Amino acid sequence: MADLLTPTADLHEDETVLESFQGNRSSYIRTNAWIAAGAMAAGMGILWAIGNPFVWTGAVGGLAAVLVRGAYLMSDELAVRWDLTNLRLLGPGGRAIPLEDMDQLNKLGSFVQVITKSGDKHLIKYQADPQATMAAIKRQHGGPL
Prior knowledge:
Keywords: Membrane, Transmembrane, Transmembrane helix. The chain crosses the membrane at residues 33-50, 56-74. This is DUF304 domain-containing protein. The chain has 145 residues and is an alpha+beta fold. It has a single domain (1-9, 19-145), classed as Roll (PH-domain like), CATH 2.30.29. Helices cover 45% and strands 23% of the residues. It is built from four helices and seven strands. The protein has helices spanning 2-5, 25-49, 56-79, 130-141; strands spanning 17-22, 81-85, 88-90, 96-98, 102-108, 111-116, 121-124. Helix 2 (25-49) packs antiparallel against helix 3 (56-79).
């Protein structure tokens, strides 16, 4: 299971890990709180739209669903690690993105989205400071992103 959550690519002879990015507990909880608020509003809206007199149960259901999901996935999500080397960004599940293949970096809440020149998209999730994560990648990339 740990192989799925951390980089497994072998380092090249001239490659060294410079920084690692792992999920932050506070960011995970904050992100899930926003998801819960959206789920609660959606649940109530749907029940109101279909004429259910117990609209408040949509809030309870939305909150319960996100709490159960969040608690179940927290340990796995926070164990995911990305390693930035002098040549590549290495991710879980065998992902290896050469720095020269990176095209864009985007901040999506507490996530950093890496888009390659071929259009592949990768998320570095639940960063305490996504701007700092982006700055580290940009610094190593050396060119515009």
